[in-house]
Amino acid sequence: MAKPKADDNLVAQNKKARHDYFVEETFEAGMVLQGTEIKSMRAGRMNLKESFARIRDGEVYLHNAHIAEYEQGNRFNHEPTRARKLLLKKKEISQLIGQTQQQGYSLVPLKVYIKNGFAKVLLGVAKGKKNYDKRETLRRQDAKREVDRAMKERFNG
């Protein structure tokens, strides 16, 4: 019997991105990687904190994403925080250029996963939150948590 394939094996997630930004639209992009990078990613040794995407010369690059060096790698091991090219269609890149040129918008990597054997990154077109927006979001989450807790106690107790 054939083993069912998992659609997306999550490698890394940027939880702080949803806290710091309003994500308005997402794009799925492929990543250009070296051999030791994909091996290290499959071992789950990747971190998206402080990473960002930037458009340069009509191409999209992922900066500051940390992929740890592969343990069994030799002298040809990769640089952990090098800029990695992202693969998008030309139409999507021109759409991203238009959206990120607006004041306050940026490209933020939300998560990295492996889909059908290929490394993919989910990019979000995001607008930065102000401090009062962050506090409001936390207040809303706390209120929802309290309501859920009360409902659980009422039905189970």
UniProtKB/TrEMBL annotation:
Under the heading InterPro entries, the entry gives: SmpB (IPR023620), SsrA-bd_prot (IPR000037), SsrA-bd_prot_CS (IPR020081)
Q: Which Pfam families match?
A: SmpB
Where is coiled-coil annotated? none
Q: Which residues form the signal peptide?
A: none
Q: Where primarily located?
A: cytoplasm
* Keyword tags: Cytoplasm, RNA-binding
User: What is the similarity comment for this entry?
Assistant: Belongs to the SmpB family.
Q: What does this protein do?
A: Required for rescue of stalled ribosomes mediated by trans-translation. Binds to transfer-messenger RNA (tmRNA), required for stable association of tmRNA with ribosomes. tmRNA and SmpB together mimic tRNA shape, replacing the anticodon stem-loop with SmpB. tmRNA is encoded by the ssrA gene; the 2 termini fold to resemble tRNA(Ala) and it encodes a 'tag peptide', a short internal open reading frame. During trans-translation Ala-aminoacylated tmRNA acts like a tRNA, entering the A-site of stalled ribosomes, displacing the stalled mRNA.
Residue numbers spanned by region Disordered: 136-157
Subcellular location(s) of the protein: Cytoplasm
Q: Give the classification, highest ranks.
A: Bacteria, Bacillati, Bacillota, Bacilli, Bacillales
HAMAP family tied to this protein: SmpB
Name of this protein: SsrA-binding protein
